[in-house]
Protein backbone atom coordinates (compact mmCIF):
# COMPACT_ATOMS: atom_id res chain seq x y z
CA UNK A 1 0.00 0.00 0.00
CA UNK A 2 2.62 2.55 1.14
CA UNK A 3 6.18 1.97 -0.02
CA UNK A 4 8.99 4.07 1.44
CA UNK A 5 12.22 3.75 -0.53
CA UNK A 6 15.61 5.01 0.73
CA UNK A 7 14.02 8.01 2.46
CA UNK A 8 16.36 10.40 4.26
CA UNK A 9 14.94 13.31 6.26
CA UNK A 10 17.15 16.13 7.48
CA UNK A 11 16.69 19.54 9.08
CA UNK A 12 19.39 22.16 8.60
CA UNK A 13 21.89 19.47 7.58
CA UNK A 14 21.08 17.37 10.67
CA UNK A 15 19.86 13.94 9.61
CA UNK A 16 16.81 12.62 11.47
CA UNK A 17 16.20 9.47 9.43
CA UNK A 18 18.60 7.92 6.94
CA UNK A 19 17.89 5.54 4.05
CA UNK A 20 14.61 4.25 5.51
CA UNK A 21 12.94 1.42 3.61
CA UNK A 22 9.50 0.40 4.78
CA UNK A 23 6.35 -1.22 3.43
CA UNK A 24 3.08 -0.40 5.18
CA UNK A 25 0.31 -2.85 4.41
CA UNK A 26 -3.14 -1.80 3.29
CA UNK A 27 -6.09 -2.02 5.66
CA UNK A 28 -4.21 -2.50 8.94
CA UNK A 29 -3.13 -0.33 11.88
CA UNK A 30 0.59 0.40 11.93
CA UNK A 31 2.06 2.23 14.91
CA UNK A 32 5.28 4.25 14.91
CA UNK A 33 6.90 3.80 18.31
CA UNK A 34 10.03 5.44 19.66
CA UNK A 35 11.45 8.21 21.86
CA UNK A 36 11.02 11.94 21.29
CA UNK A 37 13.06 13.20 18.36
CA UNK A 38 13.43 9.77 16.77
CA UNK A 39 11.71 10.78 13.51
CA UNK A 40 8.19 9.36 13.95
CA UNK A 41 6.37 12.59 13.18
CA UNK A 42 8.88 13.50 10.48
CA UNK A 43 8.22 10.31 8.55
CA UNK A 44 4.47 10.74 9.01
CA UNK A 45 4.76 14.30 7.69
CA UNK A 46 6.61 13.04 4.64
CA UNK A 47 3.73 10.63 3.90
CA UNK A 48 1.19 13.48 3.82
CA UNK A 49 3.52 15.71 1.83
CA UNK A 50 4.15 18.28 4.58
CA UNK A 51 7.86 17.46 4.59
CA UNK A 52 9.83 16.69 1.45
CA UNK A 53 12.51 14.04 2.03
CA UNK A 54 16.08 15.05 1.31
CA UNK A 55 16.43 11.77 -0.57
CA UNK A 56 14.23 8.85 -1.54
CA UNK A 57 10.65 8.34 -2.66
CA UNK A 58 7.26 7.47 -1.18
CA UNK A 59 4.61 5.60 -3.14
CA UNK A 60 0.95 5.01 -2.28
CA UNK A 61 -0.61 2.27 -4.41
CA UNK A 62 2.23 2.76 -6.88
CA UNK A 63 1.75 6.54 -7.11
CA UNK A 64 4.79 8.69 -6.37
CA UNK A 65 3.37 11.28 -3.97
CA UNK A 66 5.98 13.87 -4.99
CA UNK A 67 4.27 14.00 -8.38
CA UNK A 68 0.78 14.55 -6.93
CA UNK A 69 -0.78 17.96 -6.41
CA UNK A 70 -1.65 18.89 -2.84
CA UNK A 71 -5.40 18.51 -3.44
CA UNK A 72 -4.93 15.12 -5.10
CA UNK A 73 -2.84 13.83 -2.19
CA UNK A 74 -5.43 15.13 0.27
CA UNK A 75 -8.00 12.88 -1.41
CA UNK A 76 -5.78 9.91 -0.50
CA UNK A 77 -4.31 10.84 2.90
CA UNK A 78 -6.02 12.51 5.87
CA UNK A 79 -4.15 13.67 8.97
CA UNK A 80 -5.17 14.08 12.59
CA UNK A 81 -2.44 16.42 13.91
CA UNK A 82 -0.98 16.41 17.39
CA UNK A 83 -1.51 20.13 17.87
CA UNK A 84 -4.16 22.34 16.34
CA UNK A 85 -4.70 26.05 16.83
CA UNK A 86 -7.52 27.82 15.03
CA UNK A 87 -7.98 31.56 15.13
CA UNK A 88 -11.46 31.29 13.68
CA UNK A 89 -14.04 29.97 16.09
CA UNK A 90 -15.78 27.46 13.84
CA UNK A 91 -18.60 25.26 15.00
CA UNK A 92 -17.94 21.53 15.28
CA UNK A 93 -19.97 20.95 12.12
CA UNK A 94 -17.87 23.44 10.16
CA UNK A 95 -14.63 21.97 11.52
CA UNK A 96 -15.65 18.55 10.24
CA UNK A 97 -16.75 20.11 6.94
CA UNK A 98 -13.16 21.33 6.46
CA UNK A 99 -12.29 17.69 5.88
CA UNK A 100 -14.29 17.89 2.65
CA UNK A 101 -12.10 20.71 1.28
CA UNK A 102 -10.22 18.47 -1.23
CA UNK A 103 -13.57 17.43 -2.74
CA UNK A 104 -15.31 20.82 -2.77
CA UNK A 105 -15.24 23.12 -5.76
CA UNK A 106 -16.97 26.47 -5.28
CA UNK A 107 -19.51 25.48 -2.64
CA UNK A 108 -20.24 22.35 -0.57
CA UNK A 109 -22.78 20.01 -2.13
CA UNK A 110 -25.38 17.74 -0.55
CA UNK A 111 -22.88 14.85 -0.65
CA UNK A 112 -20.42 16.88 1.44
CA UNK A 113 -23.05 17.59 4.08
CA UNK A 114 -24.01 13.92 4.15
CA UNK A 115 -20.38 12.86 4.65
CA UNK A 116 -20.06 15.32 7.55
CA UNK A 117 -23.26 14.13 9.22
CA UNK A 118 -22.17 10.52 8.77
CA UNK A 119 -18.76 11.17 10.34
CA UNK A 120 -20.28 13.07 13.27
CA UNK A 121 -22.75 10.23 13.86
CA UNK A 122 -20.04 7.56 13.57
CA UNK A 123 -17.87 9.26 16.21
CA UNK A 124 -20.88 9.94 18.43
CA UNK A 125 -20.56 13.72 18.74
CA UNK A 126 -24.02 14.75 17.50
CA UNK A 127 -24.67 16.47 20.84
CA UNK A 128 -21.86 18.98 20.29
CA UNK A 129 -22.04 19.54 16.52
CA UNK A 130 -23.31 23.11 16.93
CA UNK A 131 -20.91 24.06 19.73
CA UNK A 132 -17.85 26.27 19.23
CA UNK A 133 -14.76 24.16 18.62
CA UNK A 134 -12.44 26.37 20.69
CA UNK A 135 -14.63 25.90 23.77
CA UNK A 136 -14.44 22.10 23.75
CA UNK A 137 -12.37 19.92 26.06
CA UNK A 138 -9.18 18.29 24.77
CA UNK A 139 -10.90 14.93 24.38
CA UNK A 140 -13.82 16.45 22.48
CA UNK A 141 -11.49 18.33 20.15
CA UNK A 142 -9.63 15.12 19.35
CA UNK A 143 -12.88 13.36 18.46
CA UNK A 144 -13.84 16.26 16.19
CA UNK A 145 -10.49 16.05 14.38
CA UNK A 146 -10.95 12.32 13.86
CA UNK A 147 -14.45 12.98 12.48
CA UNK A 148 -12.91 15.53 10.11
CA UNK A 149 -10.46 12.90 8.86
CA UNK A 150 -13.31 10.41 8.33
CA UNK A 151 -15.31 13.00 6.39
CA UNK A 152 -12.28 13.52 4.15
CA UNK A 153 -13.02 10.00 2.87
CA UNK A 154 -9.45 8.84 2.22
CA UNK A 155 -7.65 5.53 1.86
CA UNK A 156 -5.15 6.45 4.59
CA UNK A 157 -5.53 8.23 7.95
CA UNK A 158 -2.44 9.44 9.82
CA UNK A 159 -2.79 10.13 13.55
CA UNK A 160 0.07 11.95 15.24
CA UNK A 161 0.04 11.08 18.94
CA UNK A 162 -3.77 10.95 19.11
CA UNK A 163 -3.75 10.27 22.86
CA UNK A 164 -1.60 13.26 23.87
CA UNK A 165 -3.09 15.51 26.56
CA UNK A 166 -5.99 13.12 27.16
CA UNK A 167 -6.96 11.34 30.38
CA UNK A 168 -6.95 7.54 30.45
CA UNK A 169 -10.65 7.18 29.64
CA UNK A 170 -10.39 9.41 26.56
CA UNK A 171 -7.11 7.80 25.47
CA UNK A 172 -8.81 4.42 25.31
CA UNK A 173 -11.93 5.88 23.68
CA UNK A 174 -9.88 7.46 20.88
CA UNK A 175 -7.87 4.29 20.29
CA UNK A 176 -11.04 2.18 20.20
CA UNK A 177 -12.51 4.53 17.60
CA UNK A 178 -9.37 4.21 15.48
CA UNK A 179 -9.76 0.43 15.67
CA UNK A 180 -13.43 0.70 14.65
CA UNK A 181 -12.63 2.95 11.68
CA UNK A 182 -9.98 0.52 10.54
CA UNK A 183 -12.31 -2.48 10.85
CA UNK A 184 -15.49 -0.96 9.40
CA UNK A 185 -14.04 1.13 6.58
CA UNK A 186 -10.86 -0.87 5.82
CA UNK A 187 -8.87 2.36 6.10
CA UNK A 188 -5.11 2.10 6.48
CA UNK A 189 -4.28 3.79 9.80
CA UNK A 190 -0.83 4.94 10.88
CA UNK A 191 -0.37 6.24 14.42
CA UNK A 192 2.53 7.63 16.41
CA UNK A 193 2.34 6.66 20.08
CA UNK A 194 4.52 6.94 23.16
CA UNK A 195 3.06 4.11 25.24
CA UNK A 196 4.25 0.63 24.16
CA UNK A 197 1.24 -0.94 25.90
CA UNK A 198 -1.19 1.09 23.82
CA UNK A 199 0.73 0.03 20.73
CA UNK A 200 0.46 -3.61 21.76
CA UNK A 201 -3.28 -3.30 22.41
CA UNK A 202 -4.34 -1.47 19.27
CA UNK A 203 -1.83 -2.24 16.50
CA UNK A 204 -1.38 -4.91 13.86
CA UNK A 205 2.20 -3.92 13.04
CA UNK A 206 4.72 -1.82 14.94
CA UNK A 207 7.63 0.19 13.57
CA UNK A 208 10.37 0.97 16.09
CA UNK A 209 12.40 4.15 15.57
CA UNK A 210 15.91 4.24 16.96
CA UNK A 211 18.97 6.34 16.07
CA UNK A 212 17.82 7.28 12.59
CA UNK A 213 16.78 3.76 11.60
CA UNK A 214 13.57 1.74 11.76
CA UNK A 215 12.70 -1.87 12.49
CA UNK A 216 9.29 -3.36 11.80
CA UNK A 217 7.41 -6.42 12.95
CA UNK A 218 4.20 -7.80 14.42
CA UNK A 219 3.16 -7.22 18.02
CA UNK A 220 4.33 -10.77 18.77
CA UNK A 221 7.90 -10.40 17.62
CA UNK A 222 8.88 -6.72 17.73
CA UNK A 223 8.31 -5.85 21.39
CA UNK A 224 10.63 -7.58 23.85
CA UNK A 225 12.91 -6.65 26.72
CA UNK A 226 15.88 -6.10 24.40
CA UNK A 227 14.02 -3.86 21.95
CA UNK A 228 12.55 -1.74 24.76
CA UNK A 229 16.02 -1.25 26.25
CA UNK A 230 17.60 -0.53 22.86
CA UNK A 231 14.98 2.07 21.95
CA UNK A 232 14.23 3.71 25.32
CA UNK A 233 17.16 2.72 27.53
CA UNK A 234 14.64 1.28 30.00
CA UNK A 235 14.81 -2.16 31.55
CA UNK A 236 11.44 -3.86 31.29
CA UNK A 237 9.82 -7.25 31.64
CA UNK A 238 7.34 -8.47 29.03
CA UNK A 239 4.48 -10.39 30.63
CA UNK A 240 1.44 -12.22 29.27
CA UNK A 241 -1.89 -11.68 31.01
CA UNK A 242 -5.11 -13.13 29.56
CA UNK A 243 -3.33 -13.75 26.25
CA UNK A 244 -2.13 -10.15 26.01
CA UNK A 245 1.42 -8.84 26.17
CA UNK A 246 2.29 -5.99 28.51
CA UNK A 247 5.48 -4.01 29.06
CA UNK A 248 6.28 -3.68 32.78
CA UNK A 249 9.21 -1.29 33.30
CA UNK A 250 11.50 -1.45 36.29
CA UNK A 251 11.17 1.44 38.72
TrEMBL record:
<feature type="domain" description="ABC transporter">
    <location>
        <begin position="2"/>
        <end position="236"/>
    </location>
</feature>
<dbReference type="InterPro" id="IPR050153">
    <property type="entry name" value="Metal_Ion_Import_ABC"/>
</dbReference>
<comment type="similarity">
    <text>Belongs to the ABC transporter superfamily.</text>
</comment>
<keyword id="KW-0067">ATP-binding</keyword>
<dbReference type="Pfam" id="PF00005">
    <property type="entry name" value="ABC_tran"/>
</dbReference>
<dbReference type="InterPro" id="IPR003593">
    <property type="entry name" value="AAA+_ATPase"/>
</dbReference>
<dbReference type="GO" id="GO:0005524">
    <property type="term" value="F:ATP binding"/>
</dbReference>
<dbReference type="InterPro" id="IPR017871">
    <property type="entry name" value="ABC_transporter-like_CS"/>
</dbReference>
<dbReference type="InterPro" id="IPR003439">
    <property type="entry name" value="ABC_transporter-like_ATP-bd"/>
</dbReference>
<keyword id="KW-0813">Transport</keyword>
<protein>
    <submittedName>
        <fullName>Iron complex transport system ATP-binding protein</fullName>
    </submittedName>
</protein>
<dbReference type="InterPro" id="IPR027417">
    <property type="entry name" value="P-loop_NTPase"/>
</dbReference>
<dbReference type="GO" id="GO:0016887">
    <property type="term" value="F:ATP hydrolysis activity"/>
</dbReference>
<keyword id="KW-0547">Nucleotide-binding</keyword>
Amino acid sequence: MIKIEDVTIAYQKQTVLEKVNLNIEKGIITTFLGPNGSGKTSLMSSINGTIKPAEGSIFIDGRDISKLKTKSLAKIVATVPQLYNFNFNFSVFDMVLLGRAPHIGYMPKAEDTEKVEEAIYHIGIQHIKNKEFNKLSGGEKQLVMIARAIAQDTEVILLDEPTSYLDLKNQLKVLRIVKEINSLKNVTCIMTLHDPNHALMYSDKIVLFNNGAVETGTIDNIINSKSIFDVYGVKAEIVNIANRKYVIPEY
